[in-house]
Amino acid sequence: MKKQKTLSILAATFALGSLLAGCGGGQSAAPQQSGTSEQSNGGGASAGGALEKLVIGVVGPMSGQYSDYGSTAKAGAEYALKEKAEAFKKLGFDVQLSAQDDQADPKQGVAVAQMLISNPDVVGVVGHATTGASITAAAQYDQEKLVMVSPSATGSDLTEQGKKIVHRICARDDQQGSKAAIYAKNQLNIKTAYLMHDKQAYGQGLAEEVKKQFEKDGVQILGFEGVTAGEKDYSAVINQIVAANPEMVYFGGYYSDAGIIVKQAREKGFKGIFMGGDGYDSADLVKIAGADNANNVVFTSTVGDVGATEDGKKWISDFESSTGNKVGIFTSFGYDSMGVMLNGLEEAIKANGGKKPSREQVLEAVHKTKDYKGKFVNVTFDDKGDNTFASVYVYKYENGQKVFIGEAK
């Protein structure tokens, strides 16, 4: 394992992050600890009988326009950790959660990763929630053998870079994008489409995968344009869309931009279908676009319908009554990602004779995860860190409500 960074280097890292990083809404670029769970969740007893502390980082955008993703994943992860408290106490360990805000910013992801690495008690990370921040953070974690399990970073490149520390329980963009295109052609009968993306790792990756599949299947692509995330006026590209008159517009990006694009396109007379990925999964899209405008907005997601079964409904009720939070987009996968991490941690502790495991020992145990029975998704990691059980699902907005359609096939 490499030597710890000196305080001076770490300070310089944060200073650089403060200058260069930052997401929308004028948020501070400094790493923010948006919630640390200090409950006794189990730990190794020291000579004096005290519980030995272990820390799991949970990282994602907890503030800014993408905060739905980080905050909902954190809530699920925290709930999973709370449930395992007594089991880890019996093993002699106090497992604590350290929630950090990367604001979905790649530079901020580096700063947060450096901070977590500098704490020797941190043995794993649930996150990051978005692809761009996950990729930059992974380069830091890889140097220190600090394992990460993302609930929601879908970018294909994340697991193609050969870093053993990287894992995710969700489907990849090449799965989500190709299945979205197949669904659009076969189920929505789309013959012409205009493709857009926000020039970011997640959104552009999805749009490119849709483009590949459409070209393969003979769907006519009338345009392929990148726009700048965070803009308030997309009239230039919308005018091109209206002139081209496609049956469908696919926009790879997040709900905050998608809502504006849908609203402005409807106002200019576009009546066709809008489609996107799990970045559309937020009630705020409907608020921004307007309920009527959001009709005919279809999106894919890596997360299925949590309340589809009686067991799922009970879990939702128990979660909401226990935490006071509503189940959100990545609550369920935050829960199962933490479950995978805790399972690996427990295995590492047992393999180490009940003593505090090293980061590399936790990494090895998590990487070997096979046939883990999560509450919402089963998990087996392949050599790249992808989940062989991951699936893609389809939803739509109808009369202001999200409606589950089914698995994308």
UniProtKB/TrEMBL annotation:
PROSITE patterns: PROKAR_LIPOPROTEIN. Pfam families: Peripla_BP_6. Residues 28-37 have a biased composition (Low complexity). The keyword Signal applies. Residues 55-400 form the Leucine-binding protein domain. Residues 1-21 form the signal peptide. Keywords: Amino-acid transport, Signal, Transport. GO terms for biological process: amino acid transport. Residues 27-46 are annotated as: Disordered. Belongs to the leucine-binding protein family. This is Branched-chain amino acid ABC transporter substrate-binding protein. It comes from Brevibacillus nitrificans.
